[in-house]
Amino acid sequence: MLHTNDPIIKHKVGLLNPAEELQNISKACQVMGLSRETFYRYKQAVEDGGVESLLNKDRRKSNPKNRVDERTEAAVVQHAIDYPAHGQARTSNQLRKQGIFVSWSGVRSIWPRHGLACFKKRLCVLSKKK
């Protein structure tokens, strides 16, 4: 009998345990409202890697090609802190004058990663810095 307190995989383990107790996989799947194919997929995952393997895995691979380099990102963040009232387009234009080429949409994607997505957040960072 399998036990877990993790709410993400609790329902998956909840399918495997009644099937063991009832000795009838079809009945357990019918009660839980899942297909037998799903049951066997869960069972195989537990046999291969234990209960932890039932966690949902992110199938998307990260795409670092879409990110700007660290120097550009640091310049965007520094500009946002120095000039919190500047928007994405103005920030992009000002940095272009300094020789740092980043599009306004690039600026828009950098700011949330550093908690600078909106004007109020940029002001908060500026006030904490002073």
From TrEMBL:
This is Winged helix-turn helix. It comes from the Bacteria. InterPro entries: Homeodomain-like_sf (IPR009057).
